[in-house]
Amino acid sequence: MPATVHSSLKSLWFKHNTEGLLWRYLAVSVIGYLVHVLAFNLLVLVFGFGVYVAQLFAGGVNVTTTYVLHLRWTFRSPQQSASVAVSSLTFLMGVLFVLPIPLVAIWFSEGVLGLHGLFWANMFGNGVGVAISFVVRYFFNRYWVFGGRRGSL
């Protein structure tokens, strides 16, 4: 790979600019999503949990994974303005705000549309619900949890 292309990619991925931040956030979110879907399906198919309980546990595993990765990589800064305890507490508050979104999506698919089963729980809970949660959590993390660590978006 030519040095200029390699340097440009490295700059995009690691610089503390908005575009690099969005790429890092997206990478962490994809990892979190894969962890979420894997945990959800394992809990339902292997351990026999109901879809609502599995969604709650899978969401908890997802947000724990993404919090650690966001703290250590996405929003990492040498001059941290908030302690880890403060960012952990605000992150937890955000999780409690966002966690019901996939549950509401599953409820909508079952209660309103009449679509039952694991396929529809995956499509609505892990598809629509997690996608909406992704957008809400980005802005929540960017401006409230890790907000003092970067310039404006």
Structure description:
- With 153 residues, this protein is mainly α.
- It contains six helices and no strands.
- Helix 1 (3-14) crosses helix 2 (18-45), helix 2 runs antiparallel to helix 6 and helix 4 packs antiparallel against helix 6 (118-145).
- The two termini are 31 Å apart.
Q: Could you give a quick summary of the protein structure above?
A:
The protein has 153 residues and is an all-alpha fold. It is built from six helices and no strands.
List keywords for this structure.
153 residues; 6 helices; 0% strand; elongated; disordered C terminus
Element layout with pairings:
Blueprint (H helix, E strand, L loop, with lengths): L2 H12 L3 H28 L5 H24 L9 H15 L1 H13 L5 H28 L8
Helix pairs in contact: 1-2, 2-3, 2-6, 3-4, 3-5, 4-6, 5-6
**Oligomerization state:** single chain
Which overall shape is indicated by the principal axes computed on the Cα atoms? Answer: elongated
**Helix content range:** over 70%
| CA(first)-CA(last) distance | 31 Å
Biggest sheet details? none
Number of β-strand runs: 0
Q: Give the overall average pLDDT.
A: 81
Strand-residue proportion: under 5%
Sequence stretches where pLDDT stays below 50 over 5 or more residues: 149-153
Query: What is the radius of gyration?
Result: 17 Å
Number of helices: 6
Q: Which structural class matches the secondary elements?
A: mainly alpha
Order of helices and strands: HHHHHH
